[in-house]
Write a structure and sequence with these properties.
The protein is an all-alpha fold. Among the domains are: 80 residues, Alpha Horseshoe (Serine Threonine Protein Phosphatase 5, Tetratricopeptide repeat); 146 residues, Lysozyme, CATH 1.10.530. It has 38 helices and 2 strands. Strands 1-2 form a two-stranded antiparallel sheet. The longest helix has 21 residues. The N and C termini lie close together (10 Å). 45% of the residues are buried.
Length: 712
């Protein structure tokens, strides 16, 4: 029986366990460090700045010359973090003068302390010094922006104008660029220089309409109607930007009056139809696009409109109209890449109508007419599956063999190998089936779902994944790497993670550096980035099941036990396997606490507010907690998962499908589709492609967690 230590925080009970950190690349020597300083760093990592200050102040004064710069820096940093800027400033300035490796950080934090003390002269001097001495520092971008802000605060408009212009010139893609544009535009209006202000505000309003700054930019533009003209082309560009930002409702609002004034504009009509389709307003999309589909002058816009209308009919359940509409594309536009898409959708429509032979023919036409299109492997798979379900195993195996031969890099490779093996088993060819499964293990190891399924067919024991650090240390003498390592040594993981992220992106082939970066990102709880880096570093070894030393260095970064204390507690409370819960979290949000989906699902377990409110009510919680906070999100998400698990009789596949698509949808499938009792066949025939992929991903991650960490 595992022991659980419980901590109460308000209404929420959380399980608190000490999570072991990975042995890291501490490249700074610790042999000669006074015990007091080592203790202070450990305290900083475990309990934060307030506790660390006590340990730092216990170090004998003055500290030894060898660590004086570090003591000054870390003490100043902690004083600043605990709102003691007066005490922090002198120490940070001292560190800036003595601590060459982190002088840019010391200068930046000293400027922050000066700003907190309302000493703008000191703050601007320090920020200017940082930009002059360390122009390539990671902090230069924020320092440049803060310098412009400080000039605005102390009413030095010309310095502010010059600084913000230089900032936008050097960092046009910065997350701070929209704010800088708005501030500069307002400043120029104040300086009675509207000809310079309007282009900035207009660009913000048109090109970045989803940015919060665009609202104020629009207000300023409307207040100066004599200085700005918003053309129909401008409005179309703005609507396109709204669409690209997934602001479909706003895009519809922008496009509707535009189409009314310009009904002949096919681009406007198509974009409005696409926006309505994205909102699942299929009838409106069909009506909007009808004039384009019936045009007597064939065009690329007409081909796109026909495809979209065909998809809208399909989504609406009108498969007859869908097929009729889609058939016009290969007839009118045989050379268009959309013709292959149309034939694929025609096949899916016939499948929906349970007309398997016409579906097989549609996919055959696709392969015959467009053999080099991206959908070739998909068409082969669809044909193989239909033939298999008809009991025609030899031709089904033939289709999969063609897929594997012609599309060796296909994302469908793992499932093609697995089902080829299963079909060969059913044909009685156990020897060839076994060879096929072993080929899957060797060539498609990056798909854990099919990997586990193949191992089960081979009756292999679960593969326990080894974890170690076999990669040799990176001995890079780069100042940038040295800085990142020094920040790691000081346990400033957020700062180190940002440095390592840039290093890792610049040196993707340096695996030891990639591992260092993953470690820093993991300790900084930047798990989404950590997984991204680890996946890229391990991609080759995963596919080929080779270089086990490389893989063993990245497993815990690919499948971290993030937020484990809460996961373990709430899973135990709900009688679920915690590795199932953490697999759901990994695939739902990649451990990003503030993740937000297009549909409005929030947090680690991607809960819709309405669903969360219902679960909270069922658990006698009066108020819906903040879904962006890990503990309550995991609590509600786990209880909802447990509810579905009970509702579907402990069937894990149905539980996961309902978590993704909704329990009412899964019940409808069970009532109308007569699904297979074989869970693997059922998964392949889940009607929603997104849900089908989701179930496979979660089951694959679930297996990886159990084989990596052992059963809880």
């Amino acid at each position: 029986m595992r022991k659980r230590a419980t901590v109460r925080a308000g209404r929420w009970k959380v399980c608190l366990v000490l999570i072991g950190f990975f042995p890291g690349p501490v490249h700074a020597s610790t042999a000669d460090l006074p015990p007091g300083f080592s203790q202070a760093l450990m305290t900083l990592e475990a309990n934060g700045c307030p506790a660390a200050l006590g340990a730092l102040q216990a170090i004998p004064q003055p500290p030894p010359d060898a660590i004086r710069h570090r003591v000054s820096f870390i003490t100043g940093f902690c004083l600043l973090k605990t709102q003691q800027p007066a005490e922090a400033l002198a120490l940070l300035e001292q560190a800036a003068a003595e601590y060459d490796l982190l002088a840019d950080y010391a200068t930046f934090y000293a400027a922050k302390a000066a700003h907190a003390l309302q000493d703008p002269d000191k703050s601007t001097a320090l920020l200017s010094r940082l930009l002059a001495r360390y122009p390539n520092s990671r902090l230069a971008e924020e320092a440049h922006f803060q310098l412009g802000m400080t000039y605005l605060e102390i009413q030095q408009p010309e310095d502010a104008r010059r600084t913000l212009l230089a900032f936008l010139d050097r960092y046009p893609a910065s997350p701070l660029a929209s704010q800088a544009s708005l501030l500069l535009g307002k400043l120029l209006l104040t300086l009675e220089r509207p000809q310079e202000a309007v282009p900035l505000l207009k660009r913000l309003y048109i090109s970045f309409p989803a940015d919060p700054m665009a609202v104020e930019a629009e207000r300023l533009l409307l207040a100066n109607p004599d200085l700005v003209t918003i053309t129909a082309e401008d409005r179309l560009l703005r609507a396109r930007a709204l669409f690209q930002a997934d602001r479909y409702r706003d895009a519809v609002a922008a496009l509707t009056p535009l189409l009314k004034g310009h009904p002949e504009n096919g681009e406007v009509r198509l974009l409005l139809g696409r926006s309505q389709f994205a909102l699942k307003e299929y009838a409106q999309a069909i009506t909007t696009l009808h004039p384009l589909t019936e045009s007597t002058e064939p065009s690329a816009l007409q081909a796109e409109a026909l495809l979209l209308v065909g998809r809208a009919f399909f989504r609406s359940g009108d498969t007859f109209q869908a097929i009729a509409t889609l058939e016009r594309i290969p007839a009118l536009f045989p050379g268009s890449h959309l013709a292959a898409d149309a034939l694929h959708l025609i096949g899916l429509n016939y499948e929906e109508r349970r007309e398997e032979d016409p579906a097989l023919e549609a996919y055959a036409r696709l392969l015959r007419l467009y053999p080099n299109e991206n959908l070739g492997d998909t068409a082969r798979w669809q044909r193989a599956w239909l033939l298999y379900r008809q009991g025609k195993l030899p031709p089904a195996v033939h289709e999969l063999s063609h897929l594997l031969e012609k599309y060796p890099q296909s994302p469908l490779k793992a499932q093609a190998l697995y089902w080829r093996g299963r079909m060969l088993e059913e044909l009685g060819d156990k020897t060839l089936a076994t060879k096929t499964y072993h080929r899957l293990l060797k060539e498609a190891g990056d798909d854990p779902y099919y990997l586990q399924a193949a191992r089960q067919r081979l009756a292999l024991k679960p593969a326990r994944l080894s974890v170690n650090s076999l990669l040799p240390p990176d001995n890079s003498a780069s100042p940038v790497v040295a800085k990142a390592r020094e920040l790691s040594f000081l346990r400033l993981w957020d700062e180190a993670a940002h440095e390592y992220w840039e290093i890792a992106r610049a040196h993707p082939r340096e695996l030891p550096l990639q591992r260092e970066a993953c470690e820093a990102l993991s300790r900084a709880s930047q798990f989404e980035r950590c997984i991204s880096l680890a996946r890229r570093a391990a991609r080759g070894p995963l596919k080929t099941a080779g270089q086990d030393g490389v893989l063993s260095s990245f497993w815990t970064f690919l499948y971290p036990r993030a937020f484990w204390a809460w996961v373990d507690h709430y899973a135990g409370e709900s009688r679920l396997d915690p590795y199932l819960v953490i697999a759901v979290i990994r695939e739902e949000s990649a451990f990003a606490p503030k993740a937000l989906s297009r549909a409005g699902a929030r947090g680690l377990m991607q809960l819709l507010p309405a669903t969360a409110a219902q679960v909270a009510k069922e658990n006698n919680l009066r108020n819906l907690p903040d879904l962006d906070t890990p503990a309550p999100n995991i609590a509600l998400g786990t209880r909802y998962l447990a509810k579905l698990h009970e509702e579907f009789g402990g069937n894990l596949v149905l539980t996961l499908a309902s978590y993704n698509a909704g329990p009412h949808v899964v019940r409808r499938w069970l009532d109308t589709l007569q699904p297979s009792q074989d869970p693997e066949i059922f998964i392949e025939e889940i009607p929603y492609p997104e849900t089908r992929r989701y179930v496979k991903r979660v089951l694959g991650s679930y297996d990886r967690y159990r084989t990596l960490y052992g059963r809880p």
